[in-house]
Amino acid sequence: MYSGCMSANASERLIEATRSLLWERGYVGTSPKAIQQAAGAGQGSMYHHFTGKPDLALAAIRRTAEEMRAAAERVLGAQGPAYARIEAYLLRERDVLRGCPVGRLTMDPEVIADDELRAPVDETLDWLRGRLTGIVQEGLDNGEFSGPMRPEEIASTVVATVQGGYVLARASGSPAAFDTAVRGLLALLSPRTP
Amino acid sequence: MYSGCMSANASERLIEATRSLLWERGYVGTSPKAIQQAAGAGQGSMYHHFTGKPDLALAAIRRTAEEMRAAAERVLGAQGPAYARIEAYLLRERDVLRGCPVGRLTMDPEVIADDELRAPVDETLDWLRGRLTGIVQEGLDNGEFSGPMRPEEIASTVVATVQGGYVLARASGSPAAFDTAVRGLLALLSPRTP
DNA sequence: GTCTATAGGAAGATAGAC
DNA sequence: GTCTATCTTCCTATAGAC
């Protein structure tokens, strides 16, 4: 397991550097040279541990996907009513202007064209939708939510609002745009108290 | 005005080729050489009409932004109740798997870092949010919508759901994911008939 | 495991001829 | 307006020494 310390072995440093660069610049915008410099590793080191850029990117994407899933589960798996858990997920702290390290990759043509690189992205967002579907269903079962809603549709809307919130925030250069979209969704989801 | 015919002048062909490549590959993933080949123009031609890649990209982005705004206005400016117009906007035909040619640019580090390139993106999404805000306000005024909703928040949620819908569709490789998110939002927006 | 050397091609232009 | 030549740096490796 990765220790997180500055002097981890080269393989670890390369993966972490790649994760950071993929988040910031995407796959197309990330070169092996930039990775090596960020990791403090030479070319020989990189090509010893990985067969090339796609191989290293795959390791980085898989780890990022796993971390995102774990972070979501920490919030969604908490105790409490369905609405509260969805609200906690939507309001959880985020590095909004950096965008979503997983969702971002969907705009990368070379990630989308490569089934192996796309798979962790697809699986992570799919898992998240499934997890939220179950929670919305809970809310319907216990009478917290009402109306004609289909759980899997609401779950998709929640994930889409978050992903689109990043787009609005980055376009405007301000995290406020993300929060506004999320508050709108929470108002629509909010159990009516007539 | 651009005639759309195959043998337009080189400047037009360069702009159209750049629009297409920016949509598909983003700014970082689009090279002058690729643009010239797609446009059937040489280097001399490109650098005669434009000072460089950023200049050409700016012309392309401005045109794409203008077209997106016009397309949205055709649907949002139609006659009818607020809900129907928002529904028409959400359900309008889209090249879902290609993503949004404007929103996509927010994931490009060099677009976001350059205020001139980012401006058309920001202005277009901001215009769209404003236009939707007015329509939601209309719906509240005439009693079509009820509840604690703030128009500008709902408008942001609508735009975010669309932008995030593209992310889900591209991740899964299927336009269905977009539609699911949109249907969830429509269910939440749907005027209750108790 | 890591380093340096080497390599063919692309990126992003500039200069000058036609 | 468009073409070709030229330039520097970067991209994405492979080979072989240490």
Q: What's the CATH topology name of the domain at 64-189 in chain A?
A: Tetracycline Repressor, domain 2
The CATH level-2 architecture of the domain at 64-189 in chain A is identified as Orthogonal Bundle
Give the rounded overall mean pLDDT of chain A. Answer: 95
The residue ranges of chain A in which pLDDT falls below 50 over 5 or more consecutive positions are: none
Q: What kind of assembly state do the chains in view correspond to?
A: homodimer
Q: What is the level 1 CATH name of the domain at 64-189 in chain A?
A: Mainly Alpha
The helix/strand series of chain A, from N terminus to C terminus, equals HHHHHHHHH
The CATH H-level homologous superfamily of the domain at 64-189 in chain A: Tetracycline Repressor, domain 2
Q: What helical percentage do the residues of chain A reach?
A: 55-70%
Q: Give the helix tally of chain A.
A: 9
Structural class of chain A: mainly alpha
Radius of gyration of chain A: 19 Å
Report strand % of chain A: under 5%
Which chains share the greatest interface?
A-B, 57 and 57 residues
Biggest sheet descriptor of chain A: none
- For the record, give the distance between the C-alpha atoms at the N and C termini of chain A, rounded to a whole number: 52 Å
Shape designation of chain A: elongated
Give the tally of β-strands of chain A: 0
